[in-house]
Amino acid sequence: MTEVSHGKVPDRAQLRAHLVRARIAGDVATPRENNLRHFRLMSERHPAYLFGLEPDGTWTPEEVLALMVRRCGVVADPAHLNGQDTIDPDLTIAALDDYADRLALAGRRRERVVVATGHPDGLLDYYRALARALREAGCTLLRPARDWTYKTPASEGAKARSIDYRGPVAVVVDDVGEPRHTHSARPIRAMLASIVDDGGELPDLVVGDHGWAGGAGQAGVDAIGFADCNDPALFVGAEEGSVVAAVPLDDNVQPHLYRPLLAYVLDRAGLS
Prior knowledge:
CATH architecture: 3-Layer(aba) Sandwich
Shape: globular
Strand content: 15-25%
CATH class: Alpha Beta
Number of strands: 11
Number of domains: 1
Number of helices: 9
Mean pLDDT: 96
CATH topology: Rossmann fold
Distance between the termini: 24 Å
Helix content: 40-55%
Order of helices and strands: HEHHEHEHEEEEEHEHEHEH
Structural class: alpha/beta
CATH superfamily: Glucose-6-phosphate isomerase like protein, domain 1
Largest sheet: 9 strands, mixed
């Protein structure tokens, strides 16, 4: 299978091959022991692993593993405790289709959309391009609560963080303005509250990951997001219906490796 050319829309076979070759799916970098630890912490309702969601089910670690086998494609054997874990590229593509179909609806309706990421290193370029396509389709890209500030939990060093934007994409930045990785749902909650406090209506759609997507879904806003195999909360949200689409993939590979996914999504959504 040849590599996808820059700017070319891959077909499903080409996209599948690219996902595996780039380790966005298939044998991924996140180790099994990290996945199992996160599954357990989410089942124990540790806030950092819930992404702002409040699951209805009990979600034992065994139930989380079974869900992640079905929705993400991790190794099914509960005795597999260390080493390699996996994401099924066919599940990635199926979820990308749902994700793209919701974007297509946003374009047709010219919806009000928030785009945000907790993975600015790997995904910011992807989200910027997606946001531009939505804007060109007539959507309104919202940028509420800029400069809203909070502190991370004491367990994370009580560090100052605030909401900022890179173009139309919301990120969390540190006290010198550098974008930072975050799982927190506090920023999206602050953004939604700011919109309502200003007399506006909640957005029609939030496109993001981590707490951006989970917090929006918990608030009743349509949310679609990428989620790694150590991020079970968004898959639980998708299972329970609070998240519209959770796409299983490695969410922090080199930025250029997401370009074929972007081309595929924009083409299916009619936004290219």
